[in-house]
Amino acid sequence: MLFKPKSTYRKVGISHNENYFCAVVKNNQQYDVQWYNKSQFRLSEIFNQLELANKKICKIYAINDRFIWRKYLFFPANYSTEMLYRQMITLLKQELPIAIEDIYFDYQILLQPENNLKKVILYALKKDCQQFENKDKTIILDSEIYCYKRGLTHLFKLDENLNEAENGYVFQDQIIQFKQQEFCQTAIENSEQISDCKRLYFFENLQKIPKIKECELILLPSLDEKTIRDPYLYLTALGATLWNGKV
After folding, report:
1. Nearest alpha-carbon partner for 62 in 140, 151, 136, 128
2. Starting at the edge strand that comes first in sequence, how are the strands of the sheet with 69-76 ordered?
3. Tell me, which fold does domain 66-130 have in CATH?
């Protein structure tokens, strides 16, 4: 999911938790990481520093997924993009308790020819959400879940020919699965409820997690603790840097 202006500038991915901002800058084929203590830096100050060091940059900011509203819609396959857009605007006005001028929204259109349908995934985010500062509308906003998966796949060179729907990824206290352009989240303590997961990628020791039926547990190599303060933050910022206009 993403909210995107077009840009060909050098990409900078940003993620954060309660203590740090993590910035990953792509320089040619290298990815440089920088950490900023939240008690010492505001996001705007970080952007100013990065712009001074890298001149024109494209900023991609990973948003906590719980702030993103989603709606799954189905329309006849003969609906034009203009017709779909009008339907989406109407629905946003009806279902969200805030004015449409006060939200960012985006959408995906997926063809389902076997059912003669178009599936639309509609996303919305409140503009004054405290997760980010985007007053000048120059920041690309992306879901941290998709950023994390993108960064993980790139860094560890995961086999993208494997069936994606059969993969699971530990993300903090959740297990994430991606199925047909969507994802589902299962709390680690409820991992026995997971189905259709053949491979689970993780960092931490998972001895406390009940065995998932017919699932291979794949321990990923540890990251350098001297340069990577938080692997989740780093992989999320790295994945944001790898944004390409797609999910």
Report:
1. 140
2. 69-76, 117-126, 103-112
3. Dna Ligase; domain 1 (3.30.1490)
Domain ranges of the chain: 2-65, 66-130, 144-241
For residue 166 the two structure tokens come to: 């059969």
The more confidently predicted of residues 206 and 219 is: 219
pLDDT band at 222 (very low <50, low <70, confident <90, very high): confident
Q: Which residue has the tokens 């985007």?
A: 134
DSSP symbol at 77: T
pLDDT recorded at residue 1: 43
**Beta carbons within 10 angstroms of residue 159's beta carbon:** 9
pTM of the model: 0.84
Q: Hey, how many other C-beta atoms are within 10 angstroms of the C-beta on 47?
A: 20
Residue 200, beta-bridge partner list: 168, 217
| Torsion angle (degrees, nearest 10) of CA 4, 12, 171, 174 | -30
* Residue at token pair 């990824």: 169
- Separation of alpha carbons 222 and 95, rounded Å: 44
